[in-house]
Give the backbone structure.
Amino acid sequence: MVGIRPLRSPAACAELRRLHAEPDDGDWTEEAQPPVGLHDPIVQAGFLERRLIESYSPAEIGRTLRQLAELQPGRALWRCNTRWELPIPVQSVIMSLPAGFGRDYFYIIMAKARELLQLKRFDGSRNLLQAILEEAQSGAGPQGQTAAKLARLIGWEQLLADLLQLLHNWPKLGDYRELTSRAKACLSALQTGSDVIPRSELMEHCTLYLLNVCEWDHLSELERRWSQVDLAALLATVCRELVNKGNNRKMSRDLWNAVIPMFLLTGQQKRSAVGGSSAVQRDSPHGIMSRTQLTQFIQKVHEHTSLSVLTSLLTRLHNILLDDSTREMSLEHAVLWPTVVNDPNLFSIKNVSECLQTLLTQGIRLYPCHIPWLQAMADLRYAGNEPTSSLRYYLEACLVSSEYFTRPVPRTVLSEAVLRRMIKCCSTLHCYTQAAVLCQFLDEVDYASAFQYVAERNCADAMDAYYDCIWDMTLLEYLTHLHHKRSERDKRQQVIRLIGQLELNSNNNEEIQREAAGVRKARFLRAMVKQYAA
């Protein structure tokens, strides 16, 4: 049988394997040259294209482009990678350059800077942008008006990198005065009608940056051509009034009227496969922006007062639409907002809940010790019938307010209403012993509910392990009777030992009784935190 002749010699195959092996440092050295021994121009071009795609060194990219131009003259090298994309304003200016090295170099460096920006490698992105900015301003780059436009666009891309890095590092701001001046100058280019205007993404980031650094006066004076600027300016005006303790309700009414139309129902009937019909909800066209844009806006708001005002607004709207006093959410700045809306049936409470959850998640991530937001998230989860998650946030609020139960939980945090909700959540989860222990926390112990809970047999919690968290003598005596009735001798003896503790003697003065109750409250709440909030 005649053997099959190999396409390449063993030495050539070994050389190819060496070329395709990843370098240890993840990058090609500047001295790397096309394969020695393989003189095929296609192989050499492939090697150089790979180096071009992998490299983030401006000098190396420039050398590689010149080598590729010698091998493949006339080819548009900026098309080597289909993932290299630029914003339309930047791309149009670069494409106006003459075909050749300059166009390829500016396009590829700018695309790589955006890649690094998406990977949150801000320093690398800025280095690439600085390299092409120097090239644009030098005599070797583009000339005249095109060079000025390109330099200005590159400067704005550097500004965007700085704004994104500040958001990423929040709340570690450092000295941001110079950045504030640049953001204001960028927005002024739009106001003055410059021949080169910043693109929409940059304007949104500049606007939100000024909102986040409390430049409320400047924002309120901007011309409101864009929906993001409009909403930011309205929000800034309300924040300024709130901080200055003003009583101008018109400002908050304007913000209310701008936001609530985004949650109007615009459902359409859609015929299903089985012949029925169902409502299809779409973003309302009546607001200053869509609900999706509002969610994106919220995710870029980092400043505390702005988050607080938006949370208050959406909470009031949620309570109005819910119309159920037993599931109402706690509310900051209640006086700012109306108490009714015209025809609540036209609004989607589901969309309000989703947006509010996004807002509260953002706020708690940035300010994890802000108790009103923890309580609001717990209330929202309670209204949505999520007992486990609701308990988690109620307990986190208790934990933060008492410094991990080293001091009593304030009554404003663990109020009667909150305790009733926690008891309801525990009973829903079949954690009846936990619910019974919580009945003691009420101003007047709810014995009827507590007796009912401890008598439950199908219990999903630690049951008698919580007995040492009970300080109410009436409840302990009932447990003794219950276990005697059920012939549960060991549990009865456990309760009798607890009753015999000196600090639980009913003849003790109020201070000793209060201290005994406080110790058991803290012990129980710590156990609850380990279960639900760990």
User: Anything to note?
Assistant: The first helix runs from residue 10 to 20. The chain has 23 helices and two strands. The CA atoms of residues 431 and 461 lie 5 Å apart.
